[in-house]
Amino acid sequence: MVFKPVSSPHRHGALSTARVMQWVLLALIPGIAVLTWQFGWGTLINIAIATVTALLCEAAALSLRGRPVGFYLRDYSAAVTALLLAVALPPLAPWWLVVIATASAVLIAKQVYGGLGYNPFNPAMVGYVVVLISFPLQMSSWPTPLGLLSDASQPSLGPSLAAVATGTGIDGWSGATPLDLFKHGVNGQLVSDFVAAQPLFSQALLAGLGWEWVNLAFLAGGVLLLAKGIFTWHAPVAMLGSLALMALLFWDGGSSHSGGSLLLHLFSGATMLGAFFIITDPVSSAVSTRGRLIYGALIGVLIYLIRVWGNYPDGVAFAVLLGNFAAPFIDNYTLPRSYGHSRARRATEQSK
Amino acid sequence: MQPLWELVVANPIAAAVLALVGLALLFGALLGFAAERFRVEGDPIVEQIDALLPQTQCGQCGHPGCRPYAESIAAGEAINKCPPGGQATINALAALLDLPAPELDDEHGEASEVKKVAYIREDECIGCTKCIQACPVDAILGSAKMMHTVIAAECTGCDLCVEPCPVDCIDMLPVETGIQGWQWQLPPRPGLIASDRQPHSGAAA
Amino acid sequence: MRKVWQTPGGIHPAENKLQSVQQPIQPLPLPPRLWVALNQHAGAVAKPLVAVGERVLKGQMIARPQPDSGTALHAPSSGTVVAIGPHPIAHPSGLPADCIEIVCDGLEQWIDRDRHPDYRSLPRSELLVMISERGVAGLGGAGFPTAIKLASDRPIELLLINATECEPYITADDSLLRERAEQMLVGIDIASYLLGDPAERVIGIEDNKPEAIAALRTAIAARSDKAAAIELAIFPTKYPSGGEKQLIQIVTGRELPSGALPAELGIVCQNVGTLYALKRAIVDGEPLISRITTVTGKACLRNGNYETLIGTPVSALLGHNQLQPQRLARLIMGGPMMGVALPSSELPTVKTSNCFIAADASEVAPEQPAQPCIRCGLCAEACPASLLPQQLYWHAQSQQHEKLEAHNLFDCIECGACSYVCPSNIPLVQYFRAGKGEIRQQRAEKAKSDFARERFEFRQQRLEQQERDKQAKREARKLAAEQAKAAQAQGDNGAAEDNSAAALIAAAQARAAARMASPQQQRDKLTRAITSSRARLQAAEDKLTQAQHDGADHSQLQALQAAQAAAAQKLQLAEQKLAELAATDSASSSDASAAPELDAASRAIAKARDSAAAREAMSPSEKMASDLAALDKRLAKLQEKLELCEDSEQRQLLESSAAKLQAKRDALHTSSQGDQHGI
């Protein structure tokens, strides 16, 4: 029998890729719960459709590539992509929208590049952007939060399923998101007046009604992941910090030209989801901790720019993709200083 | 100037074409200037190619030594003619010259994994010096009517001494590396093809 | 408390140390056979000094190191050497290497131990030789010869003693410190003396060894006030703090520059086990033949630390600890993070065998196929050298060697922290080891090919030079020929005759003629010709008669007759010539003695022949008398030479030959005497 040499180390830490993904799924639960509470069955239906589509697409791609399907599906990465897309897409979006988004995320953004670990762009964000640009109407029909509904209840399961299946919305049910409202609604008013006039803002604690709870829930999930050591604090803190800084810098006291308050930006839209679940995706972000600080800060700045001066009410998806573009470049310039060397290298330097 | 301006205003296509051509000329000029002004003098390419060749001077590539082959590679010859260098040398040459890396051209000899060294069976040696004259690196010690022997540390395994020996007393023996020369091997590449799957318990379906 | 710094990275694996320190260090029963491996140390393989069949004593040197590389090896117990040859050893490849096999006779008979408790009175150089000859090597892991490390000629400010033992499971150093701390401190003193008494001596130890720390404190306090101070630096437990580079950073806050030795910073690191061995070697006169080894792991019912003889088969160690073979999933020499997985337990221990883990399935990571890298960066966070294992992984996989070196691959200490944390189970350390191996191999091949290129170019030069020399000679000869022709064309007057070809020919002819000039030589030649012709004639006649007798056919008979006729003719000719010569000879016989053209050689030959002829004519007694006379003459000449001679060697030679001659003469004299008396 030929002895096959086994290299040290002979023990292993507890963390595995599957475990990391499972923790991420766990941390999404508070956010999903709040979304369901505030906006009805839509999110759960999205999750179901997206998960099924993701697993099917990934299995198909893997078998086409001749890879062992079970081994790769067991790392839960397809499930995480599906869930992230499902909470990002509008609840009660038509089923084909969800399917297209998920399929492009898994097939185009991930499998074509070589599967997990090889994709340069965040798959969930790619899927989101594909449908955002292709189907702007469906992507801008968001629901009204619970507190603003006349009968104080969201549509029940039956009508929800019907709405998703047919692709038609539910009458009187859709409304603007806080960012959307702020962007298009302020017409020469002072912010304080505008906020007082809009029930979406006047009835809320921090930012938009309903949406602030969603963001708080995702924040809670993110803190859980930080505590578990699933990722380091650098990217989320940098992103939130730079977004807050931008908001403060351009807050001119609340005139009609202002870009929105700090709280509005931090607790509206996909900010918290982006900070703790999207930009912390290790495959598409920068590698070193210093690099992650720069990466997070860049994304924060871009989010503000797109939200305030861009065409879209929420710029998280585009900002993240632009950050993904920049990640290899950031890596080049943020190599650590190794032990015994006087300064850090640039990755492009030739060895002596 | 005026008629040109009117032409441009009237024909947006003409304007676009003019703009693009103008930009192309501008950038072309800039790049050309930069290529000359910031040119880096590197090693002559022949030196760099020769540094990558294994220097066995065996002649299997069809040239009388490694340097002549390096010179003809610089002149455009195929880079896959060196069996002692093997695929590693072909890849290195391809990387240097920015060419695709083909497989070794078997016409010139097969690449062998095992390094060989010549050995003279001294009982049979007649002292004719034919092998000494053939060795391209002077690795054989001896003279007329005196015993010939190969200095193993200097032999490159090129094979050129075997033919001229009139009593056929030279063997090419594989070099034993043993425990001193043992290296860790690269682990198998991740991303197993289903057909390559190893029998692990609890692995793929 | 001495200040300590923190290293970057690091991990906190489960320590698993309690199971092996429940008891003090135990002795082991003497195994029946021991195998001492010849390549135990960093450095070249040692050369055996003993032969098969030889009896060796405990502590006797059985292998000598190569100069400046390696240390000596000693017989761990008394017995007989039965074999010197390949045997499986503890190497990751599983390949065998040469070992000296000793069958123990059970007597444990020691050599004469040369004790030096007063080592300070010995010069340092002598002490270093003693250390090398007594086989002291680094017992912390690499087996580097201690004598070479302590022979540093740089100024050393800090002697850093490594009591860290950061790997899980291993407790050998811990138990050594608990029980034998004072002896280890003596080792520190010896090392200090060799290093020129450095200003600081610091023991670096992790805080997970409270008993060892207490024992050290007690031992340090018990030293006399005159003894130089030894400090304790206690730092938080983290793997890997015990690596030399990391320990230096923790205790001094300084980093060892890449590629430099600690001595360049004025620091020397030694493991506590090595220092203890140093004390035993110098003060107790016992070469390094045993060490403390931890045996642990769930597949053994008993775990503990043992005083193990070097060369003990691992199976004996495991058997003593009640190994359960069916539970054994992997046998590891060393710790779980950097240890070597062994193919079997029929291998001998070596000087660096600090621990054996008989791990069952729960204690080893299952061999799973690696998943793709998800670029999580946990490896970079864990790396104590602040490298980027992820980039090293990508470049090692694609075999991009320049990029590997650019990312400082050779600064990697192969601690395994990155592989430990990798969520995708990628065997990073194996990638790095393979990469390092490939780069080293490439460097060796490049050196070889550069050397071959030099030899080839030199050969080209040599051949060209030969060509040029040949060409030059050809030119010179052509020139000479032309000159000669020109001289010839000029006529007889002038022109040196020596250079003309005609003169050469004339000279050759003259020589030939001169050769013929000696009548004596001619006569001899002719006499020989006559005798051979006579013989040939006789043979031809015999053949003819035989043929006639046999009744051969006519043509054969004719041929033989012709041959006979030719031979007869030749004989006639020769005799004729001889007669002519005799006639001329007698005519010039009066001139024979003058013979002006005869050269000295022919004269000497003639003389010798004459004297030989004369001897023929003499009677035996006359012969003896003449011999005696000759010997006397020679003796007299020798005596003259001896008197004149100054050189003592020559005098000796002359005297000996004189003695010989004298002996000969005496012998001859007595025999002639005897002869004369008519025997």
From TrEMBL, chain A:
It is a multi-pass membrane protein. Its cofactor is FMN. The chain crosses the membrane at residues 20-39, 45-64, 71-89, 204-226, 233-251, 263-280, 292-310, 316-335. The modification FMN phosphoryl threonine is found at residue 177. GO terms for biological process: electron transport chain; transmembrane transport. GO terms for cellular component: plasma membrane. Its EC number is 7.-.-.-. It comes from the Bacteria. Keywords: Cell inner membrane, Cell membrane, Electron transport, Flavoprotein, FMN, Membrane, Phosphoprotein, Translocase, Transmembrane, Transmembrane helix, Transport. It is found in: Cell inner membrane. The complex is composed of six subunits: RnfA, RnfB, RnfC, RnfD, RnfE and RnfG. Belongs to the NqrB/RnfD family. Part of a membrane-bound complex that couples electron transfer with translocation of ions across the membrane. This is Ion-translocating oxidoreductase complex subunit D. It comes from Gammaproteobacteria bacterium LSUCC0057.
UniProtKB/TrEMBL annotation, chain C:
Residues 669-679 have a biased composition (Polar residues). One of its GO terms (biological process) is electron transport chain. The gene is rsxC. This is Ion-translocating oxidoreductase complex subunit C. Residues 481-495 have a biased composition (Low complexity). Its cofactor is [4Fe-4S] cluster. [4Fe-4S] cluster 2 binds at residues 383, 412, 415, 418. Its EC number is 7.-.-.-. It comes from Gammaproteobacteria bacterium LSUCC0057. One of its GO terms (molecular function) is metal ion binding. PANTHER family: ION-TRANSLOCATING OXIDOREDUCTASE COMPLEX SUBUNIT C. Part of a membrane-bound complex that couples electron transfer with translocation of ions across the membrane.
